[in-house]
């Protein structure tokens, strides 16, 4: 596993030894950032269920202003911390240990891009989307990118959030959520 492009390009990231942590493949990671295009520079990210921190580190490498790395597993937090230090990204990284509810409660600014990759079939996707919406953490033009298995049923909407796109990569699917643009216009 490596950083694909940007400031930390080519840096190898430490990977887990067991099967408890399921890192995003380089192919899917590259596809996610291709979907974002240039919407990384200067943005605030949150890598919820960070695992190794690979997605958030890729965002920082591509110019994200800040990234929150959140996970409940101590081993994931250790891996994430070591990978952030290996890249020299400590100044723009905030590491929060705890379940998604507690860590989301500790974020006190708008996030432009949420990266959600919880354990497949754990039933957390809709709960996470609803919590982010309820706490009003997503910026007006922000997006939530969820990585899930092809057998996971994803909601069309959760609170005010709507699914706007779905891309398949073999057994992995990426769904993108955001606020409908008409409701964003009304808020301006």
From TrEMBL:
CDD domains: AdoMet_MTases. Keywords: Methyltransferase, Transferase. It comes from the Bacteria. It is an enzyme of class 2 (transferase). One of its GO terms (molecular function) is 16S rRNA (guanine(966)-N(2))-methyltransferase activity. Its EC number is 2.1.1.171. InterPro entries: RNA_MeTrfase_RsmD (IPR004398), SAM-dependent_MTases_sf (IPR029063). This is 16S rRNA (Guanine(966)-N(2))-methyltransferase RsmD.
């Amino acid at each position: 596993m490596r950083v694909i492009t940007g400031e930390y390009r080519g840096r190898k990231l430490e990977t887990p030894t067991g099967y408890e942590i399921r890192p995003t493949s380089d192919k899917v990671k590259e596809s996610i950032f291709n979907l974002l295009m240039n919407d990384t520079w200067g943005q605030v990210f949150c890598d919820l269920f960070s695992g190794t921190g690979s997605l958030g580190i890729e965002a920082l490498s591509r110019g994200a202003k800040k990234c929150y790395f959140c996970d409940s597993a101590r081993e994931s937090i250790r891996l994430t911390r070591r990978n952030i230090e290996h890249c020299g990204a400590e100044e723009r990284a905030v590491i929060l240990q705890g379940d998604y509810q507690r860590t989301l409660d500790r974020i006190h600014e708008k996030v432009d891009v949420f990266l959600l990759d919880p354990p497949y079939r754990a039933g957390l996707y809709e709960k996470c989307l609803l919590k982010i919406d309820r706490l009003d953490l997503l910026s007006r033009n922000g997006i939530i990118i969820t990585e899930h298995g092809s057998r996971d049923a994803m909601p069309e909407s959760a609170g005010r959030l709507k699914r706007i796109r779905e891309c398949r990569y073999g057994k992995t699917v990426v769904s993108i959520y955001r606020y409908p643009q008409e409701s964003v216009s009304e808020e301006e």
